[in-house]
């Protein structure tokens, strides 16, 4: 089926490790490379977002659309950098930054009420009315000291999520 | 398995009712125990469980694993193994392959020169004609198996011709059918293929009895179900062989069985097939190879070695639904052949999953939020 780990030299692996700030061990990078090649069906070094939708487990995830927005057209280094937030070795800050990026749809460094509403809509679908969602969001925002019109920045996210035991990990199978 | 009633069935082709997928997904997927306490901003913003599931699916997922062909690790890369391997290649391509082609040609000549006269001359004597045609089909299948140097070990009592029974087997490649057919002439239900395979299907396989279906047609399912029922009622018809997975899987896993074969009111006789990968990987990856190329690959390998187990016939237990019955038989076949079960429908190769699964997750989350809002 094509590419085996012999296509990646030791230099390549180390370069990728640097790029993701050592979030993955060398063995994990090799496994992820095999996975990348498996997903990259046309062997062009780059995965379009449709490929992810052909993974049923991913397609049924409520946040798949938001993630696809972030996932278009990856090469291998970007693939690793994207997944590095899910490594047990990455810092809490890195994970929170990732979550922030999921919310910040227009990439302007600020998360608005609408941004949060969009994600909540993805997570609840038809099981909550739009009105209920707005109400819930407004209520918890106020209790936390913000208002409907405030924009949250990364440091706010750090404050809100920082002292929880955030668990965001995906295990890389290493054979 | 108590939750087959949870997802409601519908008549659409792709919306198959199935047992609870959450039972199969890795336990990390059903991560949290229900969060407690009053709802706070941090609970809404913390999407890490959902993101972890998504990343888990990107990194490795049980569905893609079923269709991965695993090429053997190259072993011929040093100074004495490489010439040996080259010699082996020459032997296979220049001596073994032409011999096999010769054997197959002889087989076809014998077959056609017997089949065509019998088919036309014995038109009036149906029983005799069909009995001869059956033996001829078994013979040509034996020739095919010989042309791959097939070593097939059959275990268990050979299929008998009785009414009201169907045979089900796991599916790795179209050659499964040939391997089983050389022992007993089965009638089979298949997807109609283009090209020379389609020609064979419409001429020769018609004589042993075949039912065609078309995956892409939604109404097809009812028509096919009716044809299946008619076939198993007929005492004269050949025993019916069905591959309930609906698609070729790589012989390490089994995907969900479609319930069509299990709601006919007959005994179901499971058959398990396991290929030995050391000699050749018999998995036909239809996305990557045409059947002709697949056959050529088999004919230029050393041998096709496999085991076939004919297992104990099963009937629907009282109080069991067809889906539970299908799962029970899948369990029997998977255990016997050493295959792992995955909860996915093989047709997801061709289409997107039903939104039901996503909706369930959304429903759980929404209910949890609303409930915690009430707590003070």
Automatic annotation (TrEMBL), chain A:
Pfam families given in the database record: EF-hand_7
One GO MF term: calcium ion binding
Top-level lineage group: Eukaryota
InterPro entries referenced in this protein's UniProt entry, alphabetically: EF-hand-dom_pair, EF_Hand_1_Ca_BS, EF_hand_dom
Residues annotated as domain EF-hand: 91-126
UniProt keyword list: Calcium
Entry protein name: Calcium-binding EF hand protein
Lineage: Eukaryota, Viridiplantae, Streptophyta, Embryophyta, Tracheophyta
Automatic annotation (TrEMBL), chain B:
Protein name per UniProt: Phospholipid/glycerol acyltransferase family protein
EC number annotated for this UniProt entry: 2.3.1.15
Entry keyword Hydrolase: no
Transmembrane annotation, as ranges: 77-95, 101-122, 134-154
Keyword match NAD: no
Family, similarity comment: Belongs to the 1-acyl-sn-glycerol-3-phosphate acyltransferase family.
Listed InterPro entries: LPCAT1-like, Plipid/glycerol_acylTrfase
Ranges in coiled-coil conformation: none
Gene name of this polypeptide: 11438241
Source organism per UniProt: Medicago truncatula (Barrel medic)
Residue ranges annotated for the Phospholipid/glycerol acyltransferase domain, each copy included: 165-276
Keyword set, alphabetical order: Acyltransferase, Lipid biosynthesis, Lipid metabolism, Membrane, Phospholipid biosynthesis, Phospholipid metabolism, Transferase, Transmembrane, Transmembrane helix
Pfam families xref list: Acyltransferase (PF01553)
């Amino acid at each position: 089926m094509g590419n085996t780990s012999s296509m990646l030299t030791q230099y390549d692996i180390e370069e990728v490790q640097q790029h993701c700030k050592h979030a993955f061990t060398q063995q994990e990078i090799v496994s992820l490379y095999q996975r990348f090649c498996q997903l990259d069906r046309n062997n062009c070094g780059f995965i379009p977002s449709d490929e992810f939708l052909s993974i049923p487990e991913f397609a049924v995830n409520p946040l798949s659309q938001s993630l696809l927005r972030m996932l278009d057209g990856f090469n291998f280094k970007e693939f690793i950098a994207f997944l590095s937030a899910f490594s047990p070795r990455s810092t809490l800050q890195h994970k929170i930054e990732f979550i922030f990026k999921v919310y910040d749809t227009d990439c302007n460094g600020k998360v608005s009420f609408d941004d949060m509403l969009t994600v909540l809509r993805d997570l609840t679908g038809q099981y909550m009315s739009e009105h209920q969602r707005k109400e819930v969001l407004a209520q918890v925002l106020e209790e936390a000291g913000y208002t409907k019109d405030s924009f949250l920045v990364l440091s706010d996210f750090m404050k809100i999520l920082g002292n929880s035991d955030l668990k965001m990990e995906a295990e890389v199978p290493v054979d | 398995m108590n939750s087959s009633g949870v997802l409601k069935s519908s008549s659409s082709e792709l919306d198959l009712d199935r047992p609870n997928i959450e039972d199969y997904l890795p336990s990390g997927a059903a991560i949290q125990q229900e969060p407690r306490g009053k709802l706070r901003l941090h609970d809404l913003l913390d999407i890490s469980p959902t993101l972890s599931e998504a990343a888990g699916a990107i990194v490795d997922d049980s569905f893609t694993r079923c269709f991965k062909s695993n090429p053997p690790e190259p072993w011929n890369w040093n100074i004495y193994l490489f010439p040996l391997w080259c010699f082996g290649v020459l032997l296979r391509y220049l001596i073994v392959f032409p011999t096999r082609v010769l054997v197959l040609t002889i087989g076809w000549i014998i077959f056609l020169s017997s089949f065509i006269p019998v088919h036309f001359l014995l038109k009036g004597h149906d029983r005799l004609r069909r009995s001869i045609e059956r033996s001829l089909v078994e013979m040509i299948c034996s020739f095919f198996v010989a042309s791959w140097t097939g070593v097939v070990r059959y275990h268990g009592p050979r299929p008998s011709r009785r009414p009201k029974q169907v045979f089900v087997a796991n599916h790795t490649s179209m050659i499964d059918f040939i391997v089983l057919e050389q022992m007993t002439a089965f009638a089979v239900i298949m997807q109609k293929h283009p090209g020379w395979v389609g020609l064979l299907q419409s001429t020769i396989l018609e004589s042993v009895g075949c039912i065609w279906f078309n995956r892409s047609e939604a109404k097809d399912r009812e028509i096919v179900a009716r044809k299946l029922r008619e076939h198993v009622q007929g005492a004269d018809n050949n025993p019916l062989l069905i591959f309930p997975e609906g698609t070729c899987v790589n012989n390490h896993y089994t995907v969900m069985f479609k319930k069509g074969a299990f709601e006919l009111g007959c005994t179901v006789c499971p058959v398990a097939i396991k290929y030995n990968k050391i000699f050749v990987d018999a998995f036909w990856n239809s996305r990557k190879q045409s059947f002709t190329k697949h056959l050529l690959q088999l004919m230029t390998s050393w041998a096709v070695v496999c085991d076939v187990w004919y297992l104990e016939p099963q009937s629907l237990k009282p109080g069991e639904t067809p889906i539970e019955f299908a799962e029970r038989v899948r369990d029997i076949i998977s255990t016997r052949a050493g295959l792992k079960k995955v909860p996915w429908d093989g047709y997801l190769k061709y289409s997107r999953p039903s939104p039901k699964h996503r909706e369930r997750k959304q429903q759980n989350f929404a209910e949890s939020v609303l409930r915690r809002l009430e707590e003070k």
